[in-house]
Structure prediction request, 210 residues.
Amino acid sequence: MDAATITSWMREIDVAVRAERDHLVQLDAAIGDGDHGTNMVRGFEAVIQALDADGGSPPGKLLILAGRTLVSTVGGASGPLWGSALRSGGRVLGDQANFDGGQLVEVLAAALASVKDLGTASLGDKTMVDALEPAVETLRARLAEGVALEQALDDAAAAAETGMRATIPLQARKGRASYLGERSVGHQDPGATSTALIVRALQKAAGQGS
Ligand code: ADP
Ligand code: MG
Prediction:
């Protein structure tokens, strides 16, 4: 994998959040302020513009650029959270031109650590962590078992989708949804939903080869 993998990943995210914008808005309208779909679309549109204007940076630098762009264009909680996640992930790769599955795990683990650190959320708090953490753990475990990267990423995306659905019965303990207390129960978390799209987008991008 290389810089083109990162560019494809960001393009796949852009396509996915545009397709799911209304759904993400509805989910956030139920337990938040209804801006999550527009936040994600605005952010990744800007990321694509920034990547298009970039002149051949290595993959880690592209992730840092994407993260910086999200922080500066998304007002909601998801902007700084995904922004710092992508910047932390990018720093793992330094200036190297290529990376393998094991390094991809470290990129995603750094992204997860950064979300948890900034948002102080743990598994079960009904946030994006509930989709991202199982994805990272599944990818790490499947690669350690010797499963091929494409299959491991497919399993990681499925784990994110399972984690996303598992947020429905939970009561939110972080972010805007936590203000609703018990009334947040019975709704799928919007951030976990977009996170599942982001992990699925990675599986598609890695499968395109480069
Ligand atoms: P805002 O809540 O500021 O309107 P968004 O609607 O874009 O921002 O994003 C909401 C999502 O952000 C939530 O569904 C949740 O997944 C995630 N989120 C909010 N606060 C936190 C937090 N402290 N830690 C992790 N994720 C969080
Ligand atoms: Mg919102």
